[in-house]
Automatic annotation (TrEMBL):
Name listed for the protein in its UniProt record: Short-chain dehydrogenase/reductase SDR
Species of the source: Albidiferax ferrireducens (strain ATCC BAA-621 / DSM 15236 / T118) (Rhodoferax ferrireducens)
SUPFAM superfamilies the UniProt entry points to: NAD(P)-binding Rossmann-fold domains
Pfam families registered for this protein in UniProt: adh_short_C2
InterPro entries in alphabetical order: NAD(P)-bd_dom_sf, SDR_fam
Domain of life: Bacteria
Family recorded in the similarity comment: Belongs to the short-chain dehydrogenases/reductases (SDR) family.
Keywords on record: Oxidoreductase
Length: 248
């Protein structure tokens, strides 16, 4: 069966690293992006230059119509989906809970939680043997913040990732007998651009001393865990979460 993967938020950072490793593993790769078209096109170009198959589609996972259009694009261009990585996620500038307004919180949950639910729904409709599919695998991008709480910084983001943990466990049990495995990866402090979105671009170097391994992680280290969970080597693993966090 042809291996076809959709990686949401795949233009930069962890998503881009997953895209590159997936292409090396023989997947036809579709990445979605919201704003960073040039970065997404650069990922596609790098993969195709190595004789891989890749495309980029603009979509906002917080908008249901965009998600439906994204999946239909994969159907038409590549064929039946075999792997989904719910990687798209956002955070806002660092703030305490008593400084947050409802618009911010709703924006975080719309992308990080609702987006992952709707993408998972579309993937299950294609992969599940209940829907005449041939099975597949889903990996959700959680965060160690879901256990640590991110006080004084991103409690809303941490709470959204706790919802992803629950989605992973519940959906894994729901579709385990339908040929679909669902797992999560929980990165710790990783060198990506997301910290700049929170107003703290040097955050990794600022807090790395709190990590038992005394360093920040790299997107490729997270991507390797994702690819393992998608692979046949993880054939008896579902409902699990792998921490890639240097022991933190």
């Amino acid at each position: 069966m042809k291996k076809i993967i959709l990686i949401t938020g795949g233009s930069r950072g962890i998503g881009a690293a997953i895209a590159h490793l997936a292409a090396e593993a023989g997947y036809a790769v579709c990445i979605s992006y919201l704003h960073h078209r040039a970065a997404a096109e650069a990922v596609v170009a790098a993969i195709t230059q190595k004789n891989g198959i890749a495309m980029a589609v603009q979509a906002d996972v917080a908008i249901e119509e965009d998600v439906i259009r994204l999946f239909k694009h994969v159907d038409a261009s590549f064929g039946p989906l075999t792997a989904l990585v719910n990687n798209a996620g956002i955070l806002e500038r660092q703030a305490r809970v008593d400084e947050m307004d409802s618009t911010r919180i709703q924006r975080i949950f719309a992308t990080n939680v609702v987006g992952s639910f709707i993408c998972s729904r579309e993937a299950v409709r294609r992969m599940s043997t209940r829907h005449a599919g041939k099975g597949g695998a889903i990996v959700n991008m959680s965060s160690r913040a879901s256990h640590l709480g991110a006080p004084g910084e991103y409690v809303d983001y941490a709470a959204s990732k706790a919802a992803i943990d629950t989605l992973t466990i519940g959906l894994a049990k729901e579709v385990a007998a339908e040929g679909i495995r669902v797992n999560a990866v929980s990165p710790g402090i990783i060198y990506t651009d997301i910290h700049a979105s929170g107003g703290d671009p040097q955050r990794v170097d600022r807090v790395k001393a709190s990590v038992p391994m005394k360093r920040g992680g790299y997107p490729e280290e997270v991507a390797k865990a994702v690819l393992w969970l998608l692979s046949d080597d993880a054939s008896y693993t579902t409902g699990a979460s792998i921490d890639v966090a240097g022991g933190r």
